Amino acid sequence: MDEQARIMQALGGVSLAGHSVQGGMGLQPPHGHDGTDDGRKQDIGDILHQIMTITDQSLDEAQAKKHGLNCHRMKPALFSVLCEIKEKTGLSIRGSQEEDPPDPQLMRLDNMLLAEGVSGPEKGGGSAAAAAAAAASGGASDNSIEHSDYRSKLTQIRQIYHTELEKYEQACNEFTTHVMNLLREQSRTRPISPKEIERMVGIIHRKFSSIQMQLKQSTCEAVMILRSRFLDARRKRRNFSKQATEILNEYFYSHLSNPYPSEEAKEELAKKCSITVSQGVGSTITVSQVSNWFGNKRIRYKKNIGKFQEEANLYAAKTAVTAAHAVAAAVQNSQTNSPTTPNSGFQMKDEEFQLDSAESKNTLLTNMFTGSSGSFNLPNSGDMFLSMQSLNGDSYQGAQVGVNVQSQVDTLRHVISQTAGYSEALGGNTMYSPNGLNANGGWHDAMTPSSVISPTEGPGSVHSDTSN
DNA sequence: ATTCATGATTAGCG
DNA sequence: CGCTAATCATGAAT
Q1: Which positions on chain C have an atom < 7 Å from some protein CB?
Q2: One domain, residues A160 and A270
Q3: What is the pLDDT of residue A436?
Q4: Is the pTM of this model over 0.85?
């Protein structure tokens, strides 16, 4: 192996040519000495010293020496030797460099960024455009309001991500070009195959892509945080205002046989609730919230009808009040007074028939209405319904009615029983009885909203049973 | 601190 | 897609 030794010698001399051609081994490997710590320290000290003494002048000098070497008459011979060495070491280089498959983690990140709309094709651009697009896509008024904040934040993340990505790409390209130039430059003094350059570029790209992965990762994190915050905010439960609940309950109990508001009805309910809801900022009730409410209400009502009976009675009565007022007018116009009572029953002011909201009214009503527990077994529900006209919702304040409540109610019943024709025309009162709730716990599926809604009103009208 | 009420979310169904 | 049923999670009442 004396050839190898010769080569090594030659290599050493050439490779260090830039620093000290004449001076022999400027940077001696540690094993050139005895290998003791002192020796190594000495070497390191020498190296440091040499580095420290590199000046512009010495660089120029080195450049000149390099040039001289390039023009050296022995250069081609040395070059061929180096090529030979490369040939021999090429295997190990190729062996050590394996083309790694696409990183699954990177793919995951990419997919997620794509799914979140961070890295995908531009959709909307700025937050304003996004909001506009959302608003334009019909019926998304609630969603866009809810999501606008989220969208704008996402857009911010997206912008940052793209600028950073661009920066990295630019830096990567710059660096690659730089290295390639360097290698090309060096290829004049040492053999560098295109493959090697390629490999180098690959290494650089891998390094930069690992930086990119960090960027992607942190972007993903940011998106996740944003998302979780958004979801948290949505999950935060705020009770609806009393008025909103009232409106919803009125609708529910007046459509008890088919408490499935149409889309339009939901929208109108949402609007109505939002108006009523404290007119405050952000206290809007969305259609989906209305849907949630009805979903919850239906299931909870069905699960425990008994528990909701009082409420049902209350709201039915409330609805009746408004309805009965209309009937009252009709009765007044079309009918002579009943033998037992003058029509004062309908003229009666609410204050004359006030019940305490929580206790007496409910017990009274419950007693009156309960036949079989938990179901509204009221053959003439319309009657009873109307008889409760004076239980006007918000103005229960005294419980001073006592026993004559019953008598008044009876009187009213009597009067109203003669107006059966009208009771049929009252939207909602027929729904008071949960006839729609069939034996196996479901509402009639045959029943459509339009079929149970007041004949005088269009299907889905929210105003139908509750307005004046 | 515990319990109840209630709005929101989720899986599964048709 | 809308619904039901179950469940989660929070607000309010006790």
Answers
A1: 2-7, 9-12
A2: no
A3: 59
A4: no
